[in-house]
Amino acid sequence: MSENPERRGMHDMGGDPDHRWSGPVPRAEHVLAPWEKEVDAIRTLLGRKGLQTADELRLGIEKLSGEDYARLSYYERWTRSVVHTMELKGIIAPGAFAAKVAALKGQR
């Protein structure tokens, strides 16, 4: 039974014959920016504390819209997933993270 490609998420590129969602894989080393290291550390701590599993992180990324998935970087996707999970679990208030980001941008 073949799967309907229109039902695939943006993340599911395997076996896509025309590669309409994918592009070449960059082979250059990526030096992590400080904020990316912080996101990685936060995610690790959330896992150790039992607040977000790897499956929950993956699910949050898979639920991104195709537009967001294509536009966001790897760690931006992680951030979106972490925030979504923390809001769902009532650990942070809905919109609190977005409000803080907006306030910080306004300080520039």
Question: What can you see in these coordinates?
Answer:
α1 (34-48) runs parallel beside α4 and α2 (54-62) crosses α4. The chain is mainly alpha-helical. Helices cover 52% and strands 0% of the residues. The protein has helices at 34-48, 54-62, 66-71, 74-88, 96-106. The chain contains 5 helices and no strands.
Produce the secondary structure layout:
Blueprint: H1 34-48, H2 54-62, H3 66-71, H4 74-88, H5 96-106
Task: Please supply descriptive tags for the structure shown above.
108 residues, 52% helix, 5 helices
The dominant shape is: globular
Radius of gyration: 16 Å
Strand element count: 0
- Work out the helix count: 5
**Strand-pairing-aware structural class:** mainly alpha
> Biggest sheet: strands, sense, closure?
none
Mean pLDDT figure: 85
Helix content: 40-55%
What series of H and E elements makes up the topology?
A: HHHHH
The residue ranges in which pLDDT falls below 50 over 5 or more consecutive positions are none
Oligomer: single chain
Q: What distance separates the N and C termini? A: 54 Å
Q: What is the percentage of strand-forming residues?
A: under 5%
Question: Can I get a quick summary?
Answer:
The protein is mainly alpha-helical and 108 residues long. The chain contains five helices and no strands. The longest helix has 15 residues.
